[in-house]
Design goal:
212 residues, 5-stranded parallel β-sheet, 5 strands, 50% helix
Length: 212
């Protein structure tokens, strides 16, 4: 690469951001020039500053990283975004790539793999792990119409996982910064789209499909 890549990190944990900065600081052609603790802060900075690459978490205060990803693509369609999440690939990677992410890594990945992913997507390519590539290949060869949870929007999927884990509507509302009525509306939509009748059905489904 002919120039220093300017990176912005978005994660709500300051210690984790500091760790990433230290890893990237050891790479000759990359530098972290900015950081954000949530999606609102990130979008505000994207409207006023120039970056070559975004590192984005999914689990953010308020709106999820996948929702923010959609807005990023509206503001800066060609800006590469690497999703770096605690969630396993089989839960969110395909959804993230469909929403416009250039790559997906779990937070348990090695520092070397992180740098490789950043370098690859900076060149305009996609980055997925070997296991994710195998998963995508198996999907292409499958005749199925996809799992029921793939019918859900990103926010509906987020709410579904929380309901399945036994989180109360009040707690979901607090975490997502919405009203309880809104949470209940999402719950109704989720049950309808997934053709289920109650929360217990969602829990069984989530366990079966390893979404918890």
């Amino acid at each position: 690469m002919s120039h220093m890549l300017k990176i912005i990190i978005t994660d709500d944990h300051g210690i984790f951001r500091e760790g990433l900065k230290q890893v990237i600081a050891g790479t000759a052609n990359m530098t972290v020039t900015d950081e954000a603790a949530d999606g609102t802060e990130l979008l505000a900075k994207l409207r006023t500053n120039d970056y070559d690459l975004v590192i984005l978490d999914i689990s953010l205060p308020g709106r999820s990283g996948l929702e923010i990803l959609t807005e990023i693509k509206g503001i800066r369609p060609k800006l590469p975004v690497l999703i770096l999440s605690m969630h396993p690939e089989d839960q969110y990677a395909l959804r993230a790539l469909k929403s416009g992410a250039s790559g997906y890594l779990t937070k348990g990945s090695s520092s070397q793999e992180l740098i490789e992913a950043l370098q690859k997507i900076a060149l305009g390519k996609k980055y997925v792990s070997a296991s994710m590539a195998e998963m995508l290949a198996s999907r292409i060869g499958s005749d199925s119409d996809g799992a029921l949870h793939e019918r859900l929007s990103d926010r509906e999927f987020q709410v579904m996982r929380m309901i399945a884990a036994g989180v109360t509507p009040r707690k979901i509302a607090e975490e997502l910064l919405v009203g309880i009525k809104t949470v209940n509306t999402y719950r109704v939509r989720v049950l309808q789209k997934m053709e289920m009748k109650c929360n217990a059905d969602l829990t069984r489904y989530a366990i079966l499909h390893k979404l918890m």
